[in-house]
Amino acid sequence: MREDFNQIVKKIAVSDIRQFDNEVSQVPGMVKLTLGEPDFNTPEHVKQAAIKAIEDNQSHYTPNPGIPALREAAAAYYNEKFNWHYQAENVITTVGATEGIATALQTLVNPDDVVIIPTPIFPIYIPDTLLNHGQVVFIDTSADGFVLTPERLAATIEAQGDKTVKALVLNYPNNPTGVTYNHDELAGLAKVIKKYQLWVVSDEIYAELSYGEPHESLANFIPEQVIVVNGLSKSHAMTGWRVGFLLAPKQVTDEMIKAHQYMVTAPVTMVQYAALEAMTNGKEDSQVMAKQYIERRDYLIKSLEPLGFEMARPDGAFYLFAKIPANCPQDSWTFVRELAKTQKLALIPGISFGAGGEGYVRISYAASMANLQKAVERLTAFVQAH
After folding, report:
1. CB of 329 within 8 A of CB of 335?
2. Cβ atoms of residues 89 and 111 within 8 Å
3. Average pLDDT rounded to a whole number, residues 214-241
4. CA separation for the pair 103, 123 (Å, rounded)
């Protein structure tokens, strides 16, 4: 019988994170700390800019990489925030960071090229690599505080022998752990990356939600080898608007535009005008949210540690990656399913984020304090019942 479907598509699955969220969303009274979805609304001035764009009939095609004014504004915005040195020609406007990741990997990966992915990590990079016939090599970082060390990276590259090790994926601040990299850690990685001539797909979508030291990027060390992925979903509570950015050397953006064009043509026109407003007049919008995220994080840590939960170093994003107390089921799927069934509280199992994640749960604090208080009450009851 004829095989009708791409074999790689058949082997991958819809995200189990989404599947579980959909499942528990049907239960009345469920408190969900599942998705990375800010509970804030998009800033009013950004919404008004989109309305004006519609009224001005901004409903036609834009250039593939986005309207020139937005590309210029994005370069200026990130240069100011993170001391980068990009120009408009280094920027592609994408349909969210999700499309940016797909575009970057499609541009880089040849069949059988190796892409190194440290875990635990949000799993999107894995099917994107496989769909381009690349090979994924994982590095479990759990023994090193969920930080990829230069020594582990170099050893992993050397272990590949004659294979072409094309790229490293990094996500920091990290989803699911909230861990990020400091100056010295990035400097050490940069030396190894430069030595082995790797490309880095550097997903920094949570960059503006760094709570300790100011965010630094590998683009501050080796910009010639880095493709930065960023966007407005987390910083401006614009998840549903689907607007992201790729920032890279011009010779790279010139190639990525091709993959981007045939994937999406261009982002939605009026959304680009909303993004332009966010990047010109909303430079501090994220800080209002960040202040509340810190309060929520600290509340959860203070509340959960007495229950026996141990947390990774939560320096950014809006997640806690919590080690399940010893008296509770250590299989993370068993833990979250029992918790949802008995207490109507939904978390994400750590195993969904790859090696090093088993025995943990991810708790999103992109939720109201009222819901976090309910979550603490329900977690307390669950842990005490065991």
Report:
1. yes
2. no
3. 97
4. 16
Contacts of 65 (CB under 8 A, 6+ apart): 71, 91, 92, 93, 253, 257, 260, 266
Residue 383: what are its φ and ψ, rounded to 5°? Answer: -65, -40
Q: How confident is the model at residue 277 (pLDDT cuts 50, 70, 90)?
A: very high
Q: What is the pTM of this model?
A: 0.95
Q: What is the pLDDT of residues 170-183, one digit of tens each?
A: 999 999 999 999 99
Residue 1 pLDDT level (bands cut at 50, 70, 90):
low
Which pLDDT tens digit goes with each residue over 88-132? 999 999 999 999 999 999 999 999 999 999 999 999 999 999 999
Write the CB contacts of 67 (distance below 8 Å, at least 6 apart in sequence). Answer: 93, 269, 272, 273, 276
- 255: tokens are 């190639």
